[in-house]
Design brief:
Elements lengths: L1 E8 L7 E8 L6 H12 L18 E4 L2 E4 L5 H7 L10 E5 L6 E3 L2 E2 L2 H9 L20 H5 L2 H4 L6 H5 L1 H5 L6 H12 L6 H8 L14 H5 L6 H15 L6 H16 L4 H8 L7 H16 L13 H26 L1
Helix pairs in contact: 3-8, 8-9, 8-11, 12-13, 12-15
């Protein structure tokens, strides 16, 4: 069958141009195979990265029909199915563009320097001080090693970084790839810098609190690392060590959980006062709520009373059960690091 491949062509600091190449392909052909044929048979000037062709190296990440993915993993048939296009319809189209959140060097090749710099910022390697032990080897139990399996699958392809909405609006955010590797260090029994790491990952919106939980990193990860889930694990470790006076981010999380435990859902009247106003301790925060409160009051959006939700006792029981499980796992982690 014939497919039109629409590919963004551009060089640094120029506007992209959409160029169309028509190929006779099979449904099982990977996107990378199609790009190779375009380069070898039609246009040798087309630039893109590739290497292993086996979903191992992560080199061929790009946006395929608006979603970051590995060109060696995705095939023509699956892409057309996602677009609900029948292969025998009138010349189907597949659009290929460079990854996001990184400047373009040429065509589908992007400059990944910020990606690597942000990875380096979390110090993603076991501290050498922790290796100074009398044993010849630093042994781990199978259980300790198993905690590293999921994050160890990351191949640094950049797909999660490309789709990260938080990174797009906040250039200080290190990105989901870096924090997934950071969680690997937190979970590693050989590392002796857990407390220092958690303090660093807790700073402002550069670390874990910069994540907007949009889920895009989980959705596009080709290796099921689930970066957003790993960020959540770091948050839990931080929350277990901090009280609600530490930062507004900590207070936001703890107040939300406490209010849901009390009433089954959030009491908006208390939420702003306790989080932003810090239980009436933060005068500046309280004053900042004034304009918003007045607008809500005028438009009838400010509830004057609060009705607990149905099933509040079941909600409370579920939250308390989860908290017990988390505190138990945190205790085990602490023992393994001590």
């Amino acid at each position: 069958m014939q497919v039109n491949f629409k590919i963004f062509r551009q060089t640094q600091n120029t506007s992209p141009l959409l160029q169309t190449y028509r190929l006779d392909v099979k449904e099982g052909n990977t996107i990378l195979e199609c790009l190779n044929r375009i380069k070898w048979e039609i246009d040798g000037s087309l630039a893109f990265r590739k290497n292993c062709r086996n979903t191992i190296c992560g080199s061929c990440a790009m946006r395929i029909n608006g979603r970051s993915a590995l060109a060696c993993k995705e095939n023509v048939g699956n892409e057309l199915a996602k677009l609900s296009i029948h292969p025998r319809s009138e010349t189907p189209e597949i659009t290929i563009t460079p990854m996001g959140n990184m400047p373009v060097i040429k065509d589908l090749v992007v400059d990944m320097q910020s990606f690597w710099d942000n990875l380096e910022a979390v110090e993603p390697y076991v501290s050498t001080a922790a290796r100074m032990v009398p044993e010849r080897e630093f042994l781990q139990t199978p259980e300790e090693r198993s905690r590293l399996n999921q994050t160890g699958n990351c191949i640094m392809c950049g797909a999660c970084y490309s789709e990260c909405n938080a990174r797009e609006v906040n250039p200080d955010f290190v990105g989901p790839h870096a924090l997934a590797k950071a969680q690997r260090m937190v979970a590693d029994s050989r590392d002796g810098l857990t407390e220092i790491r958690l303090e660093n990952y807790h700073q402002g919106t550069q670390g874990v609190w910069g994540c907007t939980r949009c889920y895009m990193c989980n959705a596009v990860c080709p290796m099921e690392v689930a970066p957003m889930d790993q960020i959540g694990k770091i948050k839990q470790e931080i929350l277990a060590r901090k009280d609600d006076q530490e930062t507004r981010q900590i207070r936001h999380r703890k107040v939300l959980i406490n209010l849901v435990k009390q009433g089954g859902w959030i009491d908006e009247r208390k939420f702003g006062l306790q989080v932003v106003g810090n239980y009436f301790r933060d005068l500046k925060g309280l004053l900042s709520l004034g304009p918003l409160g007045l607008r809500m009051l005028v438009r009838g959006k400010l509830p004057l009373g609060f009705e607990p939700s149905a099933g509040v006792f079941q909600v409370r029981s579920l939250i308390e059960s989860v908290q017990k499980l988390e505190s138990g796992s945190s205790g085990e982690e602490t023992k393994s690091h001590s």
